[in-house]
Amino acid sequence: MSANNFSSRFKNIYNNIHLRICKYIQDSDVSSLIILALLVGIVGGVAAAVFHHLISIIKNIFFGVDAGINFVPVIRSLPWYHRILSPVIGGLIVGPLIYFFVPEAKGHGVPEVMEAAALNSGKIRARVAPFKALISAITIGSGGSAGREGPIVQIGAGFGSALGQFFKLDGDSIEILLASGAAAGISGTFNAPLAGVIFSLEVIMKNIKLKNFSPVVIASLTGNAVANLFFGPRQAIFNIPTHNFVSNWEFFFYIGLGLFAAVVALIYQNSLYGMEHLFEGIKFPPYLKPALGGLLIALLALRIPEIHSTGYPIMEQALNGTLPLYLTLIFMIAKILATDFTLGSGASGGIFAPSLFIGAMAGSSYGGIINTFFPNITGGPGSYAIIGMGAVFAGAAHAPLTSIVILFEMTRDFKIFLPMMLACIVSSVATGKVQKKNIYTTKLLNRGIDLSVIDQANLIKNIKVKEIMSSNPLTLYDTNTVADAKKLFKGAFVSYVPVLKQKSGDYIGMMSYRNLMNFIEKNENIDDLGSKKIENLVFPTSNKIHTEDSIIKALEIISNTKSKTLPVFSNDDEKLVGVVSRSDILDAYHKKITRGDKENLFTLSDKETLEVKNLINFAVDSVSKTAEDKNIIIEKKLDDNLPEIIVNSNKILWVLNSLLSNSIQYTVNGGVIKIHAYNEGEKVLISIKDQGGGIPEHIQLEVFNKYSSMITKDNINGDDLPLSSSKEIISAHNGDLWVEESSQSGTTFILSLDAYFDEDE
């Protein structure tokens, strides 16, 4: 057997085994995801230990033996030129690595993970994790002011994402593994398994669901256990005295600390991105800018070497209350500048450790001042330094829960809980009132990515156009006449039809029913519409949608171009294969937010007992302005002694508003819409009769098909629903929706709902 044949055979065997494993994992329940999360946790724990030791090794390389253990004393003993050259050389190494190989490694890493979770179905390039580890270790080890949390989050998340992609999992599952990797990294790095879980759910995923929770917890616990195998039994990161309350009056001072921490957090956050913009504006090769940042840090550190790296030993002095007030203020300002120089210039590292350093110095300064004026009712500066660490990070990241939990796990002091909760929440709320963005989302907003908007889009981001489009649509050809088009529109009840070339079948453009009717009305004197070609009534569409595109892209084009229906093309041969409309997208969104078992769609807790009169009055009031604009009168008739109904009021109002809006749209100006509510047996029936043009009998059932274009909307956020969705909602209430009658004088829709009879009456 030749080498090529052996290689080909081996590859086929491997591919078959891989496909079978992928199929098994994809078809299995959450247990497979938990097993994968366990694997992610193992790798995350190993990565945390390796990354920690890698930083120590690089410190030793740049600054000499023992620098990894006694960093500041070793630096102080070095000549000035060595202290300047080390950060500059570090910048010269990391700049080209980032610029030419992994741009995602630039900065603190967490925003990139958030972006992957929000926009890319959790997908991160596999090369990011190893490069991020090396680049961040060089940045921190050569004297940059940054922390380990951002890099380890991106490293762990990168492996979780790669594992999910390897097994060809869906987007939601990859996102869970991404969050699991982040949790494992945080847990292993800070010996904080609970904080790892909270950080992933609060900051990365931004939601807590059982499906997300279980794998993330498993990964976090595993990551912590594996890391401890390398580090040995670990105590609290900071060795500090037990926190003690001196007086209940201190609660008011802790509120003040929360407000002061919010101010410091805002300065820290905005100065960081201000420095980033400043560096971006400097006309200098971008791959050399980290070296420039390293030079600025080195010059500042000649006088204040404590700003290098994470600064944990200096923090511990502040937490023990041994630093004088003037030093804590100097260290706080210097650390903000040093972190701005490091990350603003484009180097790589986290913002958590600098936040703790800045918070400890801010808290110590605040506590020292307060204790000077109120020595008998307040603790010393050390107590406030502990709380300040969490409060500044909570304000900067808008993550109070993560701050509270991680600071407890880093100090193991139960007595900090109450003041920590108070200060963290005050700081987070205060910064949130001043500006919506936080230190993580600001980077994304600067790139035009708003996660608050994406949260809604996330519901439908993984749905492809081919899943919701109307396949094999009705079409016209360039050889068709106006009479042909009129006949098709009247019979098919659609608003837009694609037009193709007769000979080649290539797409030309779209033709709208409105444009056709306007042309006919303006040319009433044309004797023979059968001889008039439609070519001048076709409008081209410049934007293309393909079957593999996300419906988010389709929605963006629909919104930007004010279109109502888009043609869909094959990814293979660019041939027209379908159309997609606003109604289709809204239908998909509605199904996504109400997905699940039928009995869970509208649980008893979602329903309430309502009077039909109140429901109808509310629905009519909501569309009254639209009716007035067309001089349409809405007449209401409600039979006496109508029983109440038990419904989800919001969803039934959606249906009523949709039907009324549709009736107003098709009723002639000055017409009348009649609503009649009555009781038949165990049902309450509501009929809505308009004075529109009617629906042809042969398609009255088709209007409830998901591809019906009967309802058109100006945007997806409106209240109108496709009739298919309206019928689905009514069916979920054990009711029905149908067309009772339709003629040229109008159409009557009737919906039925279960009546509620009080057995005690």
Question: What is the topological layout?
Answer:
Elements: H1 3-27, H2 30-63, H3 71-76, H4 80-100, H5 110-119, H6 128-141, H7 149-166, H8 171-190, H9 193-205, H10 210-231, H11 250-281, H12 289-301, H13 312-319, H14 325-344, H15 352-373, H16 381-397, H17 400-411, H18 417-434, H19 441-446, H20 451-457, H21 465-468, E1 470-471, E2 476-477, H22 482-492, E3 496-500, E4 507-512, H23 513-522, E5 545-546, H24 551-561, E6 565-569, E7 576-581, H25 582-593, H26 598-601, E8 608-610, H27 612-629, E9 633-638, E10 644-647, H28 649-666, E11 672-680, E12 683-689, H29 723-732, E13 736-743, E14 746-756
Parallel strand pairs: 2-3, 5-6, 9-11
Antiparallel strand pairs: 1-7, 3-4, 6-7, 8-10, 10-14, 11-12, 12-14, 13-14
Helix pairs in contact: 2-6, 2-7, 2-8, 2-10, 4-6, 4-12, 6-7, 7-8, 8-9, 8-10, 9-10, 9-17, 11-14, 11-15, 11-16, 11-18, 12-14, 13-15, 14-15, 15-16, 16-17, 16-18, 17-18, 22-23, 27-28, 28-29
